[in-house]
Specification:
two-stranded antiparallel ribbon; 5 strands
Amino acid sequence: YSLAIRKQFLNNKASIGITANNFFNKYIDQTTELSGSNFELLSTRQILVRSFGISFTYKFGKMEFKEENSNQEQNSGIPTGI
């Protein structure tokens, strides 16, 4: 399970976020049992899964995306999508 919260400010140019993953469990246990004719093995490995994070983002400048006119591509004589 995960939880994330983000707050935007400065006219949506900046944001700060906080994340938490598996905050109720510190470890996941992996148990392995092996046995043979003259041995027996039992091992438990604990894997750390809890994590927390903080992020900060800031948008510089202004980006504009313009849709290209598909009629111009067809009339240009240049092959597209090869």
